[in-house]
Amino acid sequence: MRLEAKLALFNALSKLLLVLLGAVVIPPIVSRVAVAHTDQRLREKQAEVVQLIHRSGISTFVQGEAYADYNLLKQEYITLTPLPATADTVAHSPRIFNEPRQVDNEIEDFRILSEQFAEGGRSYRLEIGSSLATVELLTGTLRRMALWVLVIGALLTIVTDAAFAHYLLRPLRQLIVRKLRGVHHPSAFSYAPLDTDTTDFRRLDNSLNEMMRKIQSAFEKEREFMSNVSHELLTPVSILQSRFENMLQDPELSHTHSLKIVDSQKTLYRLRNTVRTLLLIANIENEQYLRDEAVSVAAVLADVTNELDDRLAQRELRLLEDLRPDYVVPQANRTLLFTLLFNLISNAIKYNRWGGSITVEGRPGPLGGYLLRVTDTGPGIAAEHLPHLFDRFRRFQAGASAPEGYGLGLPIAKTIAEFHKSELTVESEVGQGTTFTLRFP
Amino acid sequence: MHVLIVEDEKSLHQEVRQFLLQSQYLVDSAYTYAEASEKIFVNSYDFVLLDLGLPGGDGLDLLREARQNERQEASFIILTARGAIDDRVKGLDLGADDYLPKPFSLLELQSRMQAIMRRKFGLKRQELTFGNGFQLDATGRTLRYQDQDVALTKKEFDLLHYLLLHKNRVLTRLQLGEHLWGNVLEDDSDSNYIDVHIKNIRKKLSQFAPTDFLETVRGIGYRVADAG
Q1: Contact map slice: A 36-75 vs B, CB within 8 A
Q2: Which one of A4, A41, B1, B86 is least enclosed by Cβ atoms within 10 Å?
Q3: How far apart are CA B56 and CA A58, in angstroms?
Q4: Which of chain B's residues have a Cβ under 8 Å away from the Cβ of A226?
Q5: B214 Cβ neighbours under 8 A, 6+ residues apart
Q6: Cβ-Cβ contacts under 8 Å, A230 against chain B
Q7: Cβ distance A312 to A350 under 8 Å?
Q8: Alpha-carbon distance values, B67 to A82, B88, B114 (Å)
Q9: Closest in B9, B190, B221 to A235, CB measured
Q10: Any chain B CB within 8 A of the CB of A234?
């Protein structure tokens, strides 16, 4: 998962948690606030009533029986009740409590402030009530509002946080898209500095550039080394080869010496081919070859069979070509693909029985891509040798009947396959033959 | 035929020189960039065999310089052991006529030179007659005996042609093999493919006339004798 997605997800989750917490915590707080608010109002009213009584005298309100005042919707009431002069009618300061009261044949819960006081030698009880339904209505409204504010706030911050993270992480995205994705070789790397003022990204970018420069310089050194080595090795080989050729032309050379020179020539060719092969592999691995042509497998195969026709005929081998359909390798190097197929097929010729056959079968891969299989009818390869088949300088068939070779054909094939992002595998059954499978992506 | 060898490696230089002298070429030598530059400016050659890594400069610059000199009509063949892949492309782009990576066979060098000469003088048909009435047309790639076509495979034809080009020389199997499959890195240099080819050529030709001219030199290789 990308960093930005992770941040957004974490952000959303934490906000959700906050909203849930709010949903749990806000209602009791709100109702407490509402109750406190109601109590405060009741006390204010009580103070006003007391003031009125002082100013106008108690008789304005109470003449013998109790005074009661309700507002129209029974949300509030004020009663002033004269109390009989008994022991429990001592004056007490205001108390606030919840109690049901009957108002016009209806029983409702009220928040009540009750106070008893003495005035003009008599005791009175003052009650100011506020309907609890009203209080709850208020708490409900407050609660809803608080939750809405919370949810909207959460959503807003989620969006702004995501947008900010998106903005903040832009350099990182650019770093990945421009510098890392699709870079298989330092020469394809972009050294343009990243546009950012975030110190961490700046540092990341700088060290990435520096590292790539180091790798590139190492690559260049290796390339230079390969170039020097090839020069230093191939020049002496070249001298010897020319000298042997000149010596063979000498009419005074004895036959014995001629044979020795031919033998030396063989040894020299072997050295030359080994050096060339190693250079080829090194050059491919060093990305010295371009992969810029669309190449048809059938066309390359035709070139290869054209080169190998005579060898097939000499060993009375049949080559069965079965490409259904042909495949065009989109980014390929034709010369290298030729070498790859040439090596596979010349191998199949070399290690075949007299009068056998070679099948080249091409099919679309089951999971996309393309499969090319080269199957021979040779003696097969023992299972224990298969894992090392593509190792350099390894050959398995010993003895006089073994074909001459230096075990570099298959490593070359493998290197070229990898250069084309494809996979070269081998299956074999002793006595049945061997199949090389080339899997294009 | 006047040839300038530009090669700083003395031993190789001497071998190429000896070979060309034996083949009746007129040979001139340069071992450094400056020497070569001066000789190319002063003299006119048919061929310049050019090594790329020279003391004092890059052979490719020498080629560029020479191509700007209108009086110099030499054909350039680049001989190099440098590993770089694009040298070949660059060289041919600059107007080199051919490119031979070291190590190369002197015989291959000679046949490349002959091919360039034929191209240069517009010789449309190159016909070689041999063996009492065989005629090989290298351009049309046909072999005839008097008025009859002799059918050879591509490799058989190339092999016979190469032997004819180097008449009276013994060609080893390696030299022949390198000519036939020169571009392909092969690791079975000791194969008997060449022997089978020769056997087939003899079989096909002997239906028309004796093939004594195609000699086997025991343990070494094959030769087309002049007598034919």
Answers
A1: none
A2: B86
A3: 128
A4: 83
A5: B131, B163, B198, B201, B202, B205, B222, B223, B224
A6: 81-83
A7: no
A8: 132, 17, 21
A9: B9
A10: yes
The alpha-carbon gap from B69 to the nearest alpha carbon of chain A, in Å, equals 30
Q: Which domains does chain A have, with CATH numbers?
A: 3-164 (no CATH), 199-285 (1.10.287), 293-440 (3.30.565.10)
- Flag whether residue A270 sits within 8 Å of chain B, measured between CB atoms: yes
CA A19 to each of CA A24, A154, A317: distance values in angstroms, whole numbers, following the listed order:
9, 7, 79
CB atoms within 10 A of CB A111: 22
Contact status, residue B62 vs residue B44, Cβ threshold 8 Å: no
> Which residues of B fall within a CB distance of 8 Å from A264?
none
Report the residue of chain A nearest B173, measured CA to CA. A262
Helix (H) and strand (E) counts in chain B: 8, 14
Concatenated DSSP letters for A280-336? HHHHHHTT-S---EEEEHHHHHHHHHHHHHHHHHHTT-EEEEEESS--EEEEE-HHH
ipTM over 0.95: no
B136, B128 Cβ separation under 8 angstroms: yes
Which class for B57: exposed (0-12), middle (13-18), buried (19 or more C-beta within 10 A)?
middle
How far is the C-alpha of B6 from the C-alpha of A250, rounded, in Å? 25
Question: Of the candidates A290, A365, A364, which has an alpha carbon nearest to the alpha carbon of residue A326?
Answer: A364
Which A positions 389-428 lie with beta carbon below 8 A of chain B?
403-409, 412
Residue A307 contacts B, CB cutoff 8 Å: yes
